[in-house]
Design a protein that fits this description.
Layout: H1 7-19, H2 46-55, H3 72-75, H4 80-89
């Protein structure tokens, strides 16, 4: 623990923590010498792997090295959920609604219906 008595001691503590004891000033440091703890990897569920494998094709070839390899069995598997949802959505014959707020239907006065304007 570093006491905040002077800015110089805090600066040295940060530099030592990030870059190691061999680096004394920020001008000697480079991004390659940063010492940060590795984040532990997470095991992904089958549902998440299936979802990510569907998006795998859109990744540019030069960026594929950043992503874990997808097994061929998942990559080539047919998407049963999409086929089922397409079959369910086809029989609907409702017309599409226009975007925006629905228009109000104007109420018309019925014959022999008194209006508030007639009372004054």
């Amino acid at each position: 623990m570093v006491k905040c008595t002077s800015i110089e001691t805090v600066r040295k503590a940060f530099i030592t923590e990030l870059f190691g004891p061999s680096i004394q000033t920020i001008w000697e440091a480079s991004i390659h010498s940063v010492h940060l703890p590795r984040k532990p990897t997470q095991d992904l569920s089958d549902k998440k792997m299936k979802s990510l494998s569907a998006k795998y094709c859109s990744i540019p070839q030069q960026r594929l090295t950043y992503y874990p390899a997808v097994p061929d069995s998942i990559f080539d598997a047919p998407d049963l959920e999409a086929a089922a949802s397409d079959a369910e959505s086809t029989p609907k014959s409702q017309s599409k609604r226009k975007p925006g707020r629905p228009k109000k239907e104007k109420t018309t006065l019925k014959p022999n219906q008194p209006s508030i304007l007639q009372f004054f």
